[in-house]
């Protein structure tokens, strides 16, 4: 479904008496700059146009546009369009990731992504004093949705769970937190994520067990973003690192 804020578009039309060819250029949100190419009979009557191509989100689109006269007067016609199309998924070559970190200890088991991530979709953090577990979902470089975790046992009853769902054009540009020794192991005590839209957190307690945690901070370079994570965990999240692309 296309949200209302996306429906700001520009028509470029080439008409003859019996034939019409139009390019629709979308002007806002995730569809910005994408185009649809449609053609068919004149706009004077109700009927169907063919979708014969597109660019951006609508690359290689095919389908139909059903037009219905919504209002008609001497000055202008208002036409209602129902667009139904099919777009072929682009094949994106595998892209090398940059591994940053980890920060924390060497306890527990290594944790990593099953596939190479392309875009981070959501993050779920379970915490009380420490980061009890960490989970995230992402789109991999083949265009498939993947979920990793939870890394950690999840903590006691009554612990807090926060889920961050990133918007279509939102990306993580900075990750920070603290780690330190508790329960005879090194654990991640707190985490904070900063996107191009807002900040999330901090989650956890950097001074848990009355001991100040060791801080860490990672900021992605201009033109790149955090797309996935790796680390170590057992009962708790022991170390934490990020993938950028």
Automatic annotation (TrEMBL):
A Pfam family the protein falls into: Jacalin
Intracellular or extracellular location(s): Secreted, Extracellular space, Apoplast
Keywords: Apoplast, Lectin, Secreted
InterPro entries per UniProt: Allene_oxi_cyc_Dirigent, Dirigent, Jacalin-like_lectin_dom, Jacalin-like_lectin_dom_plant, Jacalin-like_lectin_dom_sf
Any GO molecular function: carbohydrate binding
Domain Jacalin-type lectin: residue ranges: 97-245
Superkingdom of origin: Eukaryota
Cellular component GO terms held in the UniProt record: apoplast
GO BP field: phenylpropanoid biosynthetic process
Record's function text: Dirigent proteins impart stereoselectivity on the phenoxy radical-coupling reaction, yielding optically active lignans from two molecules of coniferyl alcohol in the biosynthesis of lignans, flavonolignans, and alkaloids and thus plays a central role in plant secondary metabolism.
Family: Belongs to the plant dirigent protein family.
The protein's assembly and partners: Homodimer.
PANTHER family attached to this UniProt entry: OS05G0143600 PROTEIN
UniProt-recorded name of the protein: Dirigent protein
Gene name per UniProt: LOC100829827
């Amino acid at each position: 479904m296309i949200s209302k804020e996306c429906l700001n578009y520009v028509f470029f039309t080439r008409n003859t008496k019996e034939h019409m060819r139009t390019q629709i250029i979308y002007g806002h949100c995730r569809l910005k700059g994408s185009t649809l190419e449609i053609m068919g009979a004149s706009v004077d009557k109700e009927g169907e146009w063919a979708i014969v191509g597109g660019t951006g989100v609508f690359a290689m689109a095919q389908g139909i546009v059903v037009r219905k006269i919504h209002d008609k007067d001497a000055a202008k016609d208002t036409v209602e369009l129902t667009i139904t199309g099919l777009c072929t998924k682009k094949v994106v070559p595998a892209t090398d990731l940059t591994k940053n970190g980890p920060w924390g200890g060497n306890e527990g088991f290594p944790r990593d992504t099953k596939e190479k991530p392309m875009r981070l979709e959501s993050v779920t953090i379970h915490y009380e004093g420490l980061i009890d577990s960490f989970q995230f979902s992402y789109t991999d470089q083949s265009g498939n949705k993947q979920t990793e975790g939870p890394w950690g046992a999840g903590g006691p009853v009554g612990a807090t769970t926060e889920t961050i769902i990133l918007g279509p054009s939102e990306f993580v540009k900075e990750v920070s937190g603290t780690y330190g020794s508790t329960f005879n192991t090194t654990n991640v005590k707190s985490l904070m994520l900063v996107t191009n839209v807002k900040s999330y957190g901090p989650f956890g307690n950097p001074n848990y067990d009355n001991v100040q945690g060791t801080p860490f901070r990672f900021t992605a370079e201009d033109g790149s973003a955090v797309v996935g994570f790796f680390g170590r965990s057992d009962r708790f999240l022991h170390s934490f690192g990020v993938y950028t692309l």
